[in-house]
From TrEMBL:
CDD domains: AdoMet_MTases
Keyword Methyltransferase on entry: yes
Keywords: Methyltransferase, Transferase
UniProt cross-references to Gene3D superfamilies, sorted A to Z: Vaccinia Virus protein VP39 (3.40.50.150)
Protein name, as recorded: Methyltransferase small domain
Keyword Transferase: yes
Alphabetical list of Pfam families matching this protein: PrmA
Taxonomic lineage of the native organism: Bacteria, Pseudomonadati, Pseudomonadota, Betaproteobacteria, Burkholderiales
MF-aspect GO terms: protein methyltransferase activity
InterPro entries per record: Ribosomal_L11_MeTrfase_PrmA, SAM-dependent_MTases_sf
Gene Ontology terms: biological process: methylation
Length: 234
C-alpha cells in the first residue's frame, strides 16, 4: 500500500468516526472497552484501540498521582484508578468529554480519586506536579474544522507542541509520561518535540487495529517518555 492510499483510507475512516461521534443518541451510548463499560455522550471521542497499548502497558505505583491530558470519556483516568492511583486529574477542552468523563467516574465509583476539569491542556491544572502524566492527543497534523475533529487532527500541530512545551512544569523530577501515537500520525515530529524538551522516548507496546482496515495497517503505540538526565543517572 503506497503512502497516498494509506492517507486516503485514514481520512475516510476518521471522517466516518467523527460523524458517528456526532450521531450518538442524546442519552449516550454504552461502550465496552477492555472488559469494562463506559457511557459516551454525543461529541465525545469513542474509546477505541488507539489507547489500548497505553492502558495495557502503563504502570502506576500504589498512591501515585496521575494527570490525564485529553481524557475524552475518561477511560485512561479510570484505569489509572484500577491500577492503584491515589489521585487523578483528568482534563479535556471538550465540554461533551467532560460530561462523559464525570459520568463514568461516578459509575466506576472513583469520585473520591478523580477530579475532572475542562481545560485546554494544562491551563486549569494549577501548580501541581504529578508522578505520571498520560496523553492520548490527536495523532495527525491536519486542520480540524470543529471540536470533534480536534480529537483526531491537530491544526498546525499546536496541541502537541503546547503539550511538550509545558509538560515539564507538571511532571515530578522522577516522573514519567505515557504517550499514544499511531503509525499514520506524527511520530517523527513527536520524538523531535520530546527530545527538544529534554526527554527520552521509548516504545512500550503496540496494537494493530483491523477495525480501521481489514489489512490491519493501522498500528497504535504507547511511548514511555522520561527526562534524559534520569537515564544518564542509571
Amino acid at each position: 500500500m503506497d503512502n497516498i492510499s494509506l492517507l486516503e483510507r485514514t481520512d475516510l475512516w476518521q471522517q466516518e468516526r467523527q460523524e458517528a461521534i456526532k450521531a450518538l443518541p442524546r442519552s449516550g451510548k454504552a461502550i465496552q472497552y477492555l472488559g469494562k463499560e463506559f457511557r459516551v455522550y454525543p461529541g465525545t471521542f469513542l474509546p477505541f484501540a488507539d489507547s489500548h497499548p497505553l492502558v495495557n502497558n502503563f504502570h502506576i505505583n500504589p498512591g501515585e498521582s496521575v494527570l490525564d491530558v485529553g481524557t475524552g470519556s475518561g477511560v485512561i483516568a479510570i484505569f489509572a484508578c484500577y491500577k492503584g492511583a491515589g489521585r487523578v486529574v483528568a482534563v479535556d477542552v471538550n465540554p461533551s468529554a467532560i460530561r462523559s468523563a464525570k459520568y463514568n467516574v461516578r459509575q466506576h465509583g472513583f469520585e473520591h480519586v478523580v477530579e475532572v476539569k475542562q481545560s485546554c491542556l494544562f491551563q486549569q491544572v494549577g501548580q501541581d506536579q504529578f508522578d505520571v502524566i498520560t496523553a492520548n492527543l490527536p495523532f495527525r497534523i491536519k486542520p480540524a474544522h470543529d471540536i470533534v475533529a480536534q480529537s483526531q487532527w491537530d491544526t498546525d500541530f499546536k496541541t502537541n507542541t503546547g503539550f511538550f512545551t509545558e509538560v515539564g512544569k507538571y511532571l515530578k523530577p522522577n516522573g514519567r509520561i505515557y504517550f499514544s501515537q499511531a503509525n499514520f500520525g506524527a511520530i517523527k515530529e513527536i520524538k523531535a518535540l520530546a527530545k527538544a524538551a529534554g526527554f527520552s522516548v521509548h516504545s512500550l507496546g503496540s496494537t494493530v487495529a483491523k477495525e480501521v482496515d481489514k489489512a490491519g495497517y493501522a498500528e497504535f503505540t504507547v511511548f514511555l517518555i522520561k527526562r534524559m538526565e534520569l537515564e544518564s543517572a542509571i
